[in-house]
Amino acid sequence: MVHAMLRLCLLAIALQALAVVAGAQNVVSRESTVTGTVERIDRFSRTLTVRRDGNVVQMIAVDPAEKQFDQLKTGDRITVRYIESTIVEVRPGAAPSNPRSTTADARAGNDQVVDQTKMVVTIDSIDSDGLFVAYRTEDGRRVLRGVADRKLLQGLRAGDRVEVTLTRERAVTIERGR
After folding, report:
1. Are residues 76 and 98 in the same domain?
2. CA 81, CA 40: separation in Å to the nearest integer?
3. Do 18 and 104 sit in the same domain of this protein?
4. Which of 2, 48, 80, 99 has the smallest number of CB atoms closer than 10 Å to its CB?
5. Residue in 155, 143, 3 with CA at minimum distance from that of residue 11
6. 177 in a domain, yes or no?
7. Which residues make Cβ contacts (< 8 Å) with residue 143, sequence separation at least 6?
8. Domains held by the chain: number
9. DSSP E strands: which ranges in the chain?
């Protein structure tokens, strides 16, 4: 009887520890900056197409409160600031998945969301000093990524299945002539 009670207590403690790990989230939000030349302006949808250095083209949605948008012309050199966040959550037993858009669900709770993507990967290795993580995708590809903030790696171990959520919000400021 004592052994059965002891096993039951140990099982309860193990399940509680698993629940704590499974619910742990590493969240980092930061302001990102893009500098480039305006290639296209869509005033109806309030979007800009900006050509950055290195010939990289990026589409940016602009908050209706940003009045500078109405003054822009094709060819203007601008710097745009927007908010993006990354959430890394341990999901034991979750099946790896390809990136999928969850933008519609995210917009239901925040109309400033422009894009949200989620995927589940398996962690291969973590280099906390160099801020790199290697992971495997659903199709078995091994990917090595730089990590912008050490907080995203906290508590992760090789073998963990994690859900990564990347959310990008509307531009919050636009500066001309930089």
Report:
1. no
2. 18
3. yes
4. 2
5. 3
6. no
7. 121, 134, 135, 136, 137
8. 2
9. 25-42, 47-52, 56-61, 77-90, 97-101, 113-127, 132-136, 142-146, 161-176
Q: Write out pLDDT tens, residues 140-164.
A: 999 988 888 888 898 899 999 999 9
64 and 132 within one domain: no
Looking at the structure, tell me whether residues 102 and 160 fall in a common domain. Answer: yes
Question: How large a percentage of the chain has pLDDT more than 90?
Answer: 40
User: How many residues make up the chain in this entry?
Assistant: 178
Structural tokens at position 158: 């090789």
pTM > 0.70: yes or no: no
Sign for the CA dihedral angle at 69, 66, 105, 100 comes to: positive
The whole-angstrom distance between residue 63's C-alpha and the CA centroid of its chain comes to 20
CATH of the domain at 46: 2.40.50
- My answer on whether 111 and 121 are in the same domain is yes
Question: For residue range 117-140, what is the model confidence (pLDDT) as tens digits?
Answer: 999 999 999 998 878 899 999 999
Q: Are residues 78 and 116 in the same domain?
A: no
- Domain hosting residue 67, numbered range: 32-82
The model's pLDDT over 2-36, given as tens digits with 9 standing for 90+, comes to: 333 333 332 233 333 333 334 568 888 888 888 99
Return all residues near 8 (Cβ < 8 A) that are at least 6 apart: none
Q: Give SS3 for 114.
A: strand
Domain co-membership, 76 together with 95: no
Measured CA to CA, the distance from residue 77 to residue 42 in angstroms comes to 17
